[in-house]
Amino acid sequence: MKKKLVTFGISYCIVFLNVFMTIIFGPTEIFMGNYKDFGVVFNEFGWTFLICGIIGSVIISAIIALLPEVLRIVILSVGFGVGVACYIQGMFLNKGLDMLGATAEGYQAGKAEMIQNGVIWLALIVITLVLTCVLKKYRARIAVFGSLFLIAIQMSGYVSLFFTADKEAFQYEAGELCLSGKEQFTVSSNENIIVFILDNFSSEWLAEAKQEVPGLTDGLLDFTYYNNADCNSYSTYPSLVRLVTGHELNPTVSVDDYITECWENEKTDDYYDLLHEHGYKVNVYTPELPIICGSKTLSLATGKLDNVVQEGDTIQVNHKLLYKTLIKMSAYRYAPKCLKSRFNVGMNEYSEIVSYPDNVIATSNPNFYNALVENGLEVDDSSNYYQFIHLNGTHEFINDENCQYADGASRTQTIQGIFLMLNEYLKQLKEANAYDNSTIIITTDHGVARNMQPIFFIKEKGQKHDSMQESNAPISLNEFVPTVVNALGEDYSEFGSCIYDFSENEVRERTVYERSQDDAYPAVKRYDGGNAGQNVYHVYTYSGNLYDFQYVYDNGIYDVIPMVDSYF
Predict the structure, then answer these.
(1) 36-54 confidence digits (pLDDT tens)
(2) How is residue 173 annotated by DSSP?
(3) Can you state the angle between helices 69-92 and 319-334, rounded to 10 degrees?
(4) How far is CA 39 from CA 178, 321, 409, 515, in A?
């Protein structure tokens, strides 16, 4: 009996090392550093993971203890080796890794990088097996004390999280401000300015999709497409808050200071005053509240955005999605680089964990399309509407050509589904007699890497074409707010240049800020105190078109501006 208990104890130490690291400590640490993105509190998963982890370890250990001795020794030796490798991976080999996902393709490592990382993993596991064979007398002690040592280190970190985390990670705030989705599918019978922000949608991706799908943009015949637009900054932060407020990036201040600057300046006040003076309800729909208000609240936007409301008392948490997302994020952290892509978590996944029945906003392409088809557009004749609709776009390839959720969807299929959604929206606008009186802009917040240039379509109020027009005028998203002001028929000079100030074939110098990691500069904290994945902006300056940008990008021709802190 005593021998069986000893065998069980040895098994439990090794099993619990792996379970505690990946199921208990890993998810909790990730959550505490990103709780604002999840929108839930620790109690929604934490105690469940802890209890299930302990009980699950007991069951697994009991099963292993009953196995034949040779098989048991091999399993425990490999398990100890994997536990050590996971710990080293998470602590030392993930430098600069964005835990929340950053690109549509998910995590991608170079072949040499994956081989190097794989060799480290293989060496650790082989060394463990060799020691098991060579040091038979001490193998149990090495495994047990090694496991207990790593558990103790992580346990101290786990306990400290409860003393250092913000209280909001444990308790829902009563009456917190949020964005209401009540009028997301409402348009005016008078005038509308409708803006679609299709996240992470590169102009080069669109060009490639048009070659694969003839007639892809035929539904936009009254639009003008600007094929030489510039996003000015990567990624959703700082681009989204810049589009909402018109305040250009200031890379020399902290995230919170920049966001406060965006909302609290004379030009932004004048911009929203103009919209309201022209009778517009100004509504913004996005799942990314921290990106437009940082660690502050939406009180920054009160008086400017008309769909800022208090959250309802009823919160719905998709616990299955929450559990799945946290476990995938933990596996993403601890897995070897050759397997990380299997566990990449897109922003669309964790943005849908929480919903408020009274304040539902459709933020994914499929959800928006299905709600549009099922419920249709409503028409309101009491005011004009400015609708700023931020959807996941091509940030993740989550929908097929029918704009329905689909595992393994390609980029082209996702883009096809997006245009199906846009065509349906435009069709319903026409049926509601609200199309001709609408200014419609279809763009994105940013491209990515060497595909940095964004899509940009615009149809002005009353504009008609026999076919879609195309322009290579060198515009940028810095011209977004002045262009909206121009659509109001107002003088936009206070806000800068608008897109019509630039002509065909004009050569213009433009600048792109890309957040990056540079070991030559000091590490910085995230704006909310967590560990940051980036510490500098790489500033690319180019004259010409996408190919001129790609030349400076591919050749690493950039200036460096150190960050004060980082959003991601």
Answers:
(1) 888 899 999 999 999 999 9
(2) P
(3) 90
(4) 11, 13, 27, 25
Q: Is 539 strand, coil or helix? A: strand
DSSP 433: T
What pLDDT score was predicted for residue 102?
Answer: 46
Q: Which amino acid is at 478?
A: N
Report d(CA 441, CA 463) in Å as an integer.
Answer: 13
Q: What is the pLDDT of residue 95?
A: 73
Output the DSSP codes for 27-89. Answer: HHHHHHHHHHHH-S-GGGTHHHHHHHHHHHHHHHHHHHHTS-HHHHHHHHHHHHHHHHHHHHH
- Among 103-107, 358-362, 491-495, name the most confident range: 491-495
| CB distance 11 to 69 below 8 Å | no
Q: What is the pLDDT of residue 530?
A: 78
Query: Do residues 49 and 25 touch, judged by C-beta distance below 8 A?
Result: no
Classify residue 152 as exposed, middle or buried by CB count within 10 Å of its CB (0-12, 13-18, 19+): exposed
Residues, the chain: 568
Give phi and psi for 232, each to the nearest 5.
70, -35
pLDDT attached to residue 96: 57
Confidence category of residue 159, pLDDT binned at 50, 70, 90: very high
**Omega cis (within 30) before 238:** yes
Give CA–CA dist 321/343, Å, rounded.
14
pLDDT value at residue 375: 97
Query: Using H for helix, E for strand and C for coil, what is the string for 491-536?
Result: CCHHHCCCHHHCCCCCCCEEEEEEEECCCCCCCCEECCCCECCCCE
Omega of the bond leading into 471 within 30 degrees of 0 (cis): no
**233-234 β-sheet, strand order:** 233-234, 509-516, 536-543, 559-562
Distances in whole angstroms, Cα of residue 374 to Cα of each of 37, 418, 424: 29, 17, 12
Residue 23: DSSP 8-state? I
Sign of CA dihedral 10, 16, 21, 22: positive
SS3 of 469-488 = EEECCCCEHHHHHHHHHHHC
CB atoms under 10 Å from CB of 138, counted, come to 12
Beta bridge partners of 391: 198
